[in-house]
Each structure stands twice: as structure tokens, then as C-alpha cells.
Write a structure and sequence with these properties.
279 residues, alpha+beta, 2 domains, 8-stranded antiparallel sheet, 4-stranded antiparallel sheet, 12 strands
């Protein structure tokens, strides 16, 4: 019988603040120290470890959502009765992740409605920052898109009324296509950069098709170092496009398999991304 495959999403862990390049950053941030509570449910990192693969070293583990006390129905064979028992720290859901140490590429598997993509990145951020002490550190997981994804999508619009750009300086390295933008952000010690282009209401819309600087900023966002939102019209209808909409994904073995087997299923996609970022 064929083994079940599950879908992983790819993003970039951006760390902004105190000592973002220190060697122990990832293992410290993913340490088992902190447990956070949301709406009566607890969250933490569990089964954290490291793996070495031909594409590099990874820190891996599970983001776990669990209930401190849960009532469970149990059968009592001696009396053939059904009773309720209290179970401590019952796991509601878990989401496995693999974090490439040198590039901060992260592959993670959401868990249905219990741990959606947005919930994963929000809880991961909170726990990671708490483990680092929460001082002068800000983290964010942003999706990595296919190259030209947002730029190609823009071409489907007949009119562009607004473009919003938010970028972080790269960590650890940049690409030629957006190197100039990144180095400028680093030179002036920017932690977060924003631009907002809005068309004149009487015009035919923003004319950005051949704007090389804006295109390089969009490429930087596609590589996981920012977010671009575009508002426009197509076929007389309002359209909103975003680099958050279509991250790169890959299929890998399920959680029934050991982590090294799952990682082997993701390795080709990670290698392609690393090759892309070296261009």
C-alpha cells in the first residue's frame, strides 16, 4: 500500500534585533523552555532535535497544541461500564517543521483547522521570541513564493490602483536581483521598510510595468523577506493580490515516518530554493 503524503509549506524565518547571526540563535529560540496559553489551550515546541542532510543542517520538531486537562470516555472491562477519566496534557494537534540553519528556510505542515498556516506562524513567533527572552528580538515567518509569482499576477490586472511594500533586510545573504535594495537597508540600519504607492484617481492607474526598482523589491518579497500587496481591477472587478497567497509547497511522508525520512522527501525542494538564492 502506498504511503500517505502530506503537504509542507515553505517560508523564511526572519529574525530582527539583537544578535541575529549568533550560532545558537535557532536552538535557543526553539528550546523547550516556554509554554504559552491561548484560550485555555497550551502551546510549545516538542521533540526538537537536529539533522544533517546533504543540503545542510536542520533543526526540527513539532509545534504542539495541547489541553492541560481533558475528560475522556473510557471502558471499564471489569464492570462493562463507561466512565469519564481526566487526562492531563492531551494533544489536540501538532505541526511538524524543519528549519534550515544557514538560510532560515522553514518547511512546516499545518494541521487542518486546529493549526492553520496563520496560526502556525503566529504561535511559532510567540514561542520563539519568548525562548529568546523577548528583548530586542522580533521574528516573522514569511512565505517563499515561486519566482515572478506576484509580478506575473500583476499583468492580469487592467488597472493598478495601489501597491504596498514591506521589507526586512536579508539574513543571512542577498541575491543580485535585489542586492542593491538590501544593502541600502543595511547601510542605514533599517529593521523594517514600507512603501505605499497610490494612483491618482483621475489616472489610468499606476504605471509600474517597467519599474526596475519596484520589481526588485517584489522579488525580495517573493524570496521571503517581505510582503507585497497589490490592489487593482480586472474585468471590472476589484482584485487584491499578495505574496502571502501562494507559497511554494512540497509533498513529503507523513508524521508516521521518522524525521530523517520526512526530510529526505523535502530535500529536493530545499535544494532548488538554495540554488535560486545563489543566483
Amino acid at each position: 500500500m502506498a504511503k500517505r503524503a502530506v503537504r509542507y509549506y515553505f517560508g523564511r524565518l526572519n529574525v530582527i534585533g539583537s544578535h541575529p547571526d549568533r550560532p545558537s540563535l535557532l536552538t535557543d529560540g526553539l528550546g523547550p523552555l516556554e509554554i504559552t496559553t491561548r484560550r485555555g489551550l497550551k502551546w510549545g515546541f516538542f521533540k526538537v532535535g537536529t539533522l544533517t542532510n546533504p543540503v545542510g543542517e536542520f533543526v526540527h520538531g513539532f509545534l504542539v497544541k495541547f489541553k492541560p486537562l481533558a475528560e475522556e470516555e473510557v471502558a471499564i472491562p471489569e464492570t462493562h461500564e463507561i466512565d469519564d477519566r481526566t487526562v492531563e496534557n492531551r494533544i489536540r494537534a501538532k505541526a511538524r517543521f524543519f528549519l534550515h540553519r544557514s538560510s532560515h528556510i522553514i518547511a512546516y505542515r499545518p494541521s487542518g483547522r486546529e493549526i492553520s498556516r496563520s496560526v502556525f506562524v503566529n504561535r511559532f513567533k510567540e514561542l520563539f521570541e519568548n525562548n529568546l527572552g523577548g528583548f530586542f528580538v522580533d521574528t516573522e515567518i514569511l512565505p517563499i513564493d515561486e519566482q515572478h509569482q506576484i509580478r506575473d499576477a500583476i499583468r492580469t490586472l487592467q488597472k493598478i490602483s495601489r501597491v504596498q511594500v514591506r521589507l526586512h533586510p536579508s539574513n543571512p545573504s542577498n541575491r543580485d536581483v535585489w542586492k542593491r535594495v538590501d544593502e541600502r537597508l543595511r547601510t542605514i540600519d533599517v529593521s523594517s521598510y514600507r512603501e505605499d504607492y497610490e494612483a491618482d484617481p483621475t489616472s489610468a492607474g499606476l504605471n509600474i510595468a517597467n519599474d526596475e526598482e519596484l520589481s526588485s523589491k517584489m522579488a525580495m518579497a517573493e524570496d521571503g523577506y517581505g510582503i507585497v500587496r497589490v490592489i487593482g481591477e480586472s474585468g471590472g472587478e476589484r482584485k487584491e493580490l499578495s505574496t502571502l497567497d501562494a507559497p511554494i509547497t512540497a509533498l513529503a511522508p507523513s508524521d508516521d515516518e521518522p524525521p530523517e525520512v520526512v526530510l529526505e522527501g523535502l530535500a529536493a525542494a530545499v535544494r532548488e530554493l538554495l540554488d535560486r538564492f545563489r543566483e
